[in-house]
Structure formats: structure tokens, C-alpha cells
Amino acid sequence: KKIKVFAPATIANVGPGYDIIGLALEGVGEYLEMELLDSDEIIIHPIPDYPDLPLSPDENIAGIVAKAMLNQLEVKLGLSIRIEKEVKPGSGLGSSGCTAAATAFAVNELMDNPFSTLELVAFAMLGEKATSGKAHADNVAAALMGGFCIIKSYHPLEILSIPFPKDVQIVVAHPQIEVKTADSKKILKKEMALPDVITQMGNIAALISGITTSNYNWIRSGMHDLIAEPIRSYLIPGFVQAKSLAIEVGALGCSISGSGPSIFAFCEDENQAQEVGDRWKKFYANLEIDSNIYLSKIN
Ligand code: HSE
């Protein structure tokens, strides 16, 4: 038995939603092919273009997630896993989450669907824990469930999917510098003053209200973050200027994608998205940083 699945790249945090909001992108992600073997060995084949990623099932995200699922099912089966990555690890576009989500989905399919989607998210979170030291769910929930997801609670795990305005375009720039999620998690403050908490709650409320009612003014007013962006922007050369460029063009909001270095902007239409993408390309070229620009939508 064999299956090939695709997991979309994702944007986590989405402005003010540190660790609680994720969205899936259209057209970019990762393919994973999985085949059941008669032996009880998990074989992860070399990953094209990424010779440095570990292939041992105890270290590779796919191996970690698959083993946990097979253990829980108490089955002794082997798996052959082939991964094709379109999203670079350390890009802030949920690369590790893609592998974790694709693995959880594929194992479940090959085992005739013993697990619920929420359980698959929980298994995929084990991969995130192995990569970043923390089992955040925002990337893997979006990769597995698609669309726009809110992690309402981690204990117990509760996830909401909400509709996202169809016209909103998403521009992503991936400057070719690496930021490790584990490092960019460590630098965040552990506490927040109450006035900032109140501002942050207002922002999230405005963003979610704006998204559910397609009210662009509310999206604009909610796309501000006091938790991760002010600190992580120090790790991302040019972030402040790139954000200003997007806002000048009229974008609904701009922030860091996950733990960076990728950044994203919500745009009102394709022309605006194209304009933001063009300006970002030139901007990074001036900084002598190679960049990939993706014009996408919610998946
Ligand atoms: N919410 C996580 C973080 C996402 O910001 O650290 C990492 O991609």
C-alpha cells in the first residue's frame, strides 16, 4: 500500500496570534510519498536538495511522528518515506510542520483512518517539539486542516477553523537567511504587562472580526503584534523597511511569517499583491539578499 500526499506551507502567528493562529498557503508546500513495508523498519530516503537533514527515524520529523503513531496503534510495520521539499527548513513557512502534517496524514490513510484530525494535529506537534523545543500547533493545524485556524486551547487541544475573505491575496517574501525557530523562541519575553495584554487582545479581536466579516479596516487595525514581531524583527534584516513598503502600497497588514525570516502581507487584490511583491524583490536585491517572492492565497 502506497500514498503520496501534499502538505501546504503555512504562515504561523499571522500578526498578533503568537502560537494561536495559522493559515495554509496555496501552491507551495511539500510532497511526501509513503509505502507500507513488510519489515518493521522505517526508511527515510535522502531528501533532494537537503543532504543535511537527518534520515534516522529517531531524528527525522517524519520518523518521529510516524513512530509515535505506530506505537500508539501497537502495530509493527515498516514504512518507506520519500520527501520532496519546496519550502526550505528555517524559512518561517512551516517547513518542519509540512513534514509532520504530511506524515500524520499519510500514516492515518495507510492505517485506514484510525485517528481524528485533532489527533493528527497532536501527533504532528511532536515533530514541532523535536524541531523547535516547543510543541506549537499553529503550523501543523493549518497544514492539516487548511484555511485559517485558531488554536483556542492547547490543554485540551481545541482548534477552530474560520472562513477567510476570498479576495484577500497573500504575498510572502523569503529572504535567503536562516532563522531557527528554537533560537527565535528563546529571545521572546516570558511575561507581558497588563496594558500590553489588553492591547494585544483588542488586536486579535479586531483581526478575527475583520476576517470573519471581510471588514478590511478591522483587519488593518488588528494586524499589530506586541509579543513576537518587535523582538524578532531584530533578527530579520530590513523587516521594518519592508513592512513600511507594503503598508505604503496599501496592504491590509504585514508581519513576520512564523519565526521568520519570511515576511508576509495581506493585500486587497492581485494588483496590490503584485506591487508589494515587486517592491520587496527590488528592496532585498538592494540589500544584496536573494529572495523568493510568492503570490498566494489561502488554501
Ligand atoms: N508560533 C511559532 C513561533 C511558529 O512563532 O515560534 C513557528 O513557525
Automatic annotation (TrEMBL):
Its UniProt entry gives the catalysed reaction(s) as: L-homoserine + ATP = O-phospho-L-homoserine + ADP + H(+)
Identify the metabolic or biological route this protein is part of.
Amino-acid biosynthesis; L-threonine biosynthesis; L-threonine from L-aspartate: step 4/5
Gene Ontology molecular-function annotations: ATP binding; homoserine kinase activity
* Record-annotated membrane-spanning stretches: none
- Looking at the record, the residues that make up the GHMP kinase C-terminal domain are 210-285
Identify the main location: cytoplasm
**An example Gene Ontology cellular component term from the record?**
cytoplasm
Q: Which GO terms describe its biological process?
A: threonine biosynthetic process
Which EC number(s) are documented for this chain?
2.7.1.39
So where does ATP get bound? K88, P89, G90, S91, G92, L93, G94, S95, S96, G97, C98
| GHMP kinase N-terminal domain span | 64-147
Q: Which UniProt keywords apply?
A: Amino-acid biosynthesis, ATP-binding, Cytoplasm, Kinase, Nucleotide-binding, Threonine biosynthesis, Transferase
Asked if the Swiss-Prot or TrEMBL record annotates the protein with the keyword Cytoplasm, the reply is yes
Query: What Gene3D superfamilies does the entry give?
Result: 3.30.230.10, GHMP kinase, C-terminal domain (3.30.70.890)
Q: Which family does it belong to?
A: Belongs to the GHMP kinase family. Homoserine kinase subfamily.
Q: Which NCBIfam families match?
A: PRK01212.1-4, thrB
What HAMAP family would the database entry show? Homoser_kinase
**Function per UniProt:** Catalyzes the ATP-dependent phosphorylation of L-homoserine to L-homoserine phosphate.
Q: What is this protein called?
A: Homoserine kinase
What organism does this protein naturally occur in?
Answer: Marivirga sericea
Which gene is transcribed and translated to give this protein? thrB
